[in-house]
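Request: Give me one sample?
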Amino acid sequence: MSIQQILTNIKSDFDTAITTRRFNGNRYANGNKAKEALIRSQRIINYIHEFIKSEFVRCGVPAQMIYPPVGNSSPEIKIKGFLKSKNQDVAIIPTERLVSLTETKSPEIKKILSVNIRSQLSSLSKNIDTLYERTFAEALNLHLSHPKQCLGEVYLIPTHEYDDKAMLQNRVIFKSASKIEDYIRMFQAINDRRSTGKDAYKYERVCLLIADFRQARPKLYGSIEELKKDSLIPKNTSISLENLTIKNFAEDLLTIYTERFGRGVIL
């Protein structure tokens, strides 16, 4: 399934829950409650999980190395970091032996490539600081214990947030444009970690999925020029989307991994 189809499915599920007050056969007090049930079910985020798995398989990663297995949402692999253990949304584990070591501080954990995946389609502006701090902290937690580990992050954000208040009346309405320039700048600051001796708070590769859900077929932005054309960022901005889009996300992570550990470990 393409990323475009996934975004279309996400919009369909989101809009249907809001306007019908229903999800998974249950009726809720209002569209906001139905939306919350949809999010709690993990259905929306699992679309992206499966896409990322398929991207790794496309790049040559053996399916048996991927956890949770392709087509499944469990079991997730929990990795012990500096402060806490954390389930990994998608993990590539080269050998079965490594699975038994994930909740230890074994130096072999560095050979697990992991990607965490999030989305925030409403309440983004008021929660962005908390969400960003959490994203920042999770890379730090793992890299402090496993400095060579390759980490990826995928984050889906809307160009225009769904209006929570409208959901209470079972309506799909969008707010004014989000602060896209700020989000790009923030995520670029924790992207593209190449040295294993510093920048533990960074990810080896971040993907910021920026989509306009106001359209029946959501528009995914892949360049600064597109964002400028649609007046979503200032024309004179100095920010860049380089190495921050879905393009080559899996390839980039695998390239960095191979540089660190050599060929024959994953690929």
